[in-house]
Amino acid sequence: MMNKQKIVMAALVAFGMFTAISGQQITQAQSNQTPTRSTQNAINASDRQFAIEAARGGKAEVELGQLALQKAANDDVKQFGQQMVQEHTQANNELKQLAAQKGITLPKDVGAENKEVKAKLSKLSGTAFDQAYMNQMVKDHAKTVSLFQREAEQGQDEDLKAWATKTLPTLQEHLQRANAIKTQLTATTK
User: Fold this and answer.
1) How many Cα neighbours within 13 Å face the side chain of 24?
2) pTM score, two decimals?
């Protein structure tokens, strides 16, 4: 009986030691798999370019939305402009945080093309502004939806890919609403 207890105790001790050693090996293996800070920031060129284009486009939507609040004659256009300011500001802030974590430097301005669009729209007012602004919103959002779809499907950085996937339905809704307002404006001017 005593020998049987010694054998069981020896087996339990051996099992405990095996479990402890295995646990250490698993922990060590996991820590070896955890990326270092420098590898976390190793963003490929297409993911980096996505972040830069998304930042420029998002900033432009805010600036043009603010312009719509000042110059639009149509209430739907003004409401759309307000929505662009609110929702793109939120998305821009999320992207800014994500970019900081990834070591991506985002542009401070909207870029030459967007500056040109803003300058043209700034010279308009009333119904002429409404139509030009909504035409631009359809064009911009079609381009942006395509950009975000590509990142959501092909992005290499999981965090940027997840953010693009999360943001895409809002952008698609913006495109649908912009198209609807554009159609409404076209129908009322005929």
Assistant:
1) 5
2) 0.77
